[in-house]
Specification:
The complex is a heterodimer of chains A (205) and B (258). By secondary structure, chain A is an alpha/beta fold. Chain A has one domain: 3-Layer(aba) Sandwich (Rossmann fold), CATH 3.40.50.300. In chain A, 36% of the residues lie in helices and 21% in strands. In chain A, a hairpin with a 3-residue loop joins strand 1 and strand 2. Chain B is mainly alpha-helical and 258 residues long. Chain B is 77% helix and 0% strand. The longest helix of chain B has 32 residues. The mean pLDDT of chain B is 92. The chains are: A alpha/beta (205), B mainly alpha (258). The interface between A and B is medium-sized, with 22 and 15 residues.
């Protein structure tokens, strides 16, 4: 099987030297490592919002830099650690994210279905501003998952959630990914999540 | 009818400085510790304007195209340097674009005014120098405001920009609304000035012309013309600085430059 990602001698800005590794299509995959080991930077190189200073990253066996960046970012969707939602209602947020990525506005049923994925049934008319950090993170995850990319990169997806809901939400997310044929790579500091779901682990030092 | 302006002799002129004593008293009573600044600002203004007066008198008496040209270039350089000094962190290409926007947009509006509207040579100092001062000065304020708004919002909304980038949105599309709203912010003061003109205050250029004996009907035409020219130069300079400048914030891989 061709690995989804493989790296050879990848460096970033002469600060980080990555070990060579492969991520197989057997999801969920995890990237673990201490703070500053370059996990988030690795994800940004995977979707080409950053470029390595040297070395080679392959996606499905082909040089990552040979893919047009915008198409690649739609295909390999990075859900970053910093939650961003528009100052609008939950429905409005779905609509804005869909419009900005050139999609049709989703129906209310589709939105509710997506929100159920992350247990984010807070009412479509609620404004994002009034929600707690954990609630915002769930909406943000639901929106990105509903875009159904080929690969989803989840950077600390449960940082703002409590332990119990983390386990629950991640189970549903991975189930959704499997059902929709979405490969996933997750960065997590939560050893519990890693031990529960990881089918493969990349360790960065 | 109108008569020429009363030529002030030095004694008459000095009387105006007595008003500064009132400002000093007000400042003391209100515990505003800026009396030094007041004196320094008054002194600087006096020296700068006296020098400008001498220089302009010389240029008017010895009319030569080169004097006007040099004066114009000096004004342009000064405006560009002032603007760039406030945005030191911008990349070199952005700074070049700001400078070129000034040269092309500012000069275009000035040339149009002097050549097409007034119908004088661009090297006629009596028209070119004061008009260039007003056009470039206001363009400078506009660009400053526009750039500051743009840079602040790009910095404050970095998370939004990165999120949209992750979604595969072209950086040009992401930055366009930032440039547009900064342009709006830059234009609003000029538009508000136009709204209040003639009712709330009589603008400087018109007042000056009336004082020096020009018919008010002529003075208002010049005033309207200069306001439209200022508005156009603010719009054109800020637009090109922001729209072309914002393209320098990302590279050919559509990644944000640091």
């Amino acid at each position: 099987m061709t690995p989804i990602f493989s790296t050879e001698n990848v460096r970033f800005k002469d600060i980080i030297q990555y070990p060579d590794f492969q991520i197989q299509p057997d999801s969920p995959a995890f990237v673990v490592g201490k703070n500053g080991s370059g996990k988030s930077t690795l994800f940004k190189m995977f979707n080409r919002t950053l470029s390595p200073a040297g070395g080679l990253i392959r996606y499905n066996g082909k040089d990552l830099s040979s893919f047009p960046p915008l198409d690649l970012r739609k295909e390999i969707l990075l859900v970053s650690q910093q939650v961003f939602l528009y100052d609008d209602t939950i429905r409005g947020n779905f609509e804005k994210f869909y419009t900005v990525t050139g999609r049709q506005k989703p129906s209310d049923d589709a939105v509710l279905e997506s929100l159920a994925l992350t247990n984010a049934d807070f009412g479509l008319e609620n404004t994002a501003r009034t929600l707690s950090g954990g609630e915002r993170q769930r909406i943000y995850l639901a929106i990105f998952l509903s875009l159904k990319p080929g690969v989803i990169l989840l950077d600390e997806p449960t940082a703002a959630l409590d332990k119990e809901s983390s386990v629950d939400v991640m189970a549903q997310i991975y189930h959704f990914c499997e059902k929709n044929n979405i490969s996933s790579v997750t960065i997590s500091h939560d050893p519990n999540i890693v031990s529960l779901y990881a089918r493969q682990i990349v360790r960065l030092s | 009818m109108t008569e020429g302006v009363v030529k002030l002799n030095i004694l008459q002129f000095s009387l105006i400085y007595l008003l500064l004593i009132i400002v000093l008293i007000v400042m003391k009573r209100s515990r505003i510790q800026q009396s030094k600044l007041l004196l320094w600002a008054s002194l600087r203004m006096t020296v700068q304007l006296v020098l400008a007066g001498w220089l302009l008198t010389y240029i008017f008496q010895h009319q030569h195209w080169a004097f006007t040209a040099v004066y114009l270039v000096a004004m342009l350089v000064f405006a560009v340097v002032r603007v760039l000094s406030k945005v030191k962190h911008l990349n070199h290409r952005f700074k070049w674009i700001i400078s070129l926007s000034f040269v092309f947009a500012g000069m275009f509006v000035l040339c149009y005014f002097v050549l097409a509207v007034v119908g004088k040579s661009l090297f006629n100092p009596q028209y070119t120098i004061p008009l260039a001062g007003m056009i470039l000065g206001n363009a400078m304020t506009g660009v400053n405001l526009g750039l500051k708004t743009f840079c602040d919002s790009v910095k404050d909304r970095r998370n939004e920009i990165e999120t949209l980038l992750n979604l595969g949105v072209h950086p040009r599309e992401i930055l366009l609304p930032f440039a547009n709203s900064a342009l709006e912010t830059a234009l609003l003061p000029t538009l508000n000035t136009m709204l209040g003109m003639g009712i709330i205050y009589l603008p400087g250029m018109m007042t000056g012309q009336i004082l020096s004996g020009t018919l008010p009907t002529t003075a208002i035409m010049y005033q309207i013309a200069i306001m439209v020219a200022i508005c156009a130069s603010v719009a054109l300079t800020t637009f090109s600085a922001l729209h072309f400048g914002s393209q320098t914030l990302f590279n050919s891989n559509l990644q944000l430059n640091d």
